[in-house]
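Quick one, tokens below:
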């Protein structure tokens, strides 16, 4: 009974440690999902503006066909890229949560890695969509505004340049050294020696061995240890130098034959 209680207490301890480590990973997952959600909202606004500009603009008859064609191309690209960001970000949020909640062991960490790996790509496409939207606005000024087109174009170009420079400067200020980046992974070294393997606490498996005797071992008649710890590898040898016993069975030494008495 005491061994059973000790094993149960050990499982409760490991389960608690694993749950706390998974809560940190959950915070990291929610942080990345929130970023994708904000990006999808902005992309929907850009797509709406682009669609409205393509539908509502009436091109004058004396407008050069090349200018009008460039305007519609830039507007279409802004709309298509914004819709791409909207679809990909929404897909990542829905299926990222699904993988983290309903996936097998280790799916939460996998979902976080997938969101982080695709983040820069989605951000780049969103920035490209905004760039084409500004270009479409500049071309729209030349299509509709006549003499005031140069001033309006200068305003849009100054706006785009200011936003780009400010974002570049702020990204440099908020930059984090990769060696100092804190993630939701909780790893501890198994040994103090340098180069020792690190154990991720979110990968702990507090499962216990069943207390029932397997059918093969029951037929063999060997004793089954229900609370014996899991072996590291079946190829290792025991401390005494003898080969390891089969999992769940004891090795019983064979009795030596007694010498027969001589006549």
């Amino acid at each position: 009974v005491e061994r059973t209680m000790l094993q149960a207490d050990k499982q409760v301890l490991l389960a608690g440690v694993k749950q706390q480590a998974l809560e940190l990973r959950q915070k990291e997952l929610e942080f990345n999902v929130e970023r994708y959600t904000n990006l999808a909202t902005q992309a929907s606004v850009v797509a709406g503006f682009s669609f409205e500009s393509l539908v509502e603009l009436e091109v004058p008859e004396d407008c050069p066909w090349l200018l009008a064609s460039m305007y519609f191309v830039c507007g279409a690209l802004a709309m298509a890229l914004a819709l791409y960001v909207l679809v990909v970000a929404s897909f990542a949020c829905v299926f990222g949560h699904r993988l983290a909640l309903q996936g097998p062991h280790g799916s939460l960490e996998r979902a976080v890695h997938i969101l982080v790996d695709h983040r820069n790509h989605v951000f780049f496409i969103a920035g490209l969509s905004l760039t084409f939207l500004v270009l479409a606005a500049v071309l729209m000024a030349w299509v509709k505004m006549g003499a005031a087109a140069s001033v309006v174009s200068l305003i849009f170009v100054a706006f785009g340049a200011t936003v780009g420079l400010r974002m570049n400067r702020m990204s440099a200020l908020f930059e984090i050294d990769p060696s100092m980046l804190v993630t939701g992974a909780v790893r501890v070294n198994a040994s103090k020696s340098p180069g020792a393997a690190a154990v991720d606490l979110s990968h702990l498996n507090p499962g216990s061995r069943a207390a029932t005797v397997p059918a093969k071992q029951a037929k063999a008649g060997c004793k089954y240890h229900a609370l014996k710890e899991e072996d590291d590898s079946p190829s290792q040898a025991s401390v005494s130098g003898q080969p390891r016993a089969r999992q769940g069975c004891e090795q019983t030494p064979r009795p030596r034959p007694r010498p027969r008495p001589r006549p």
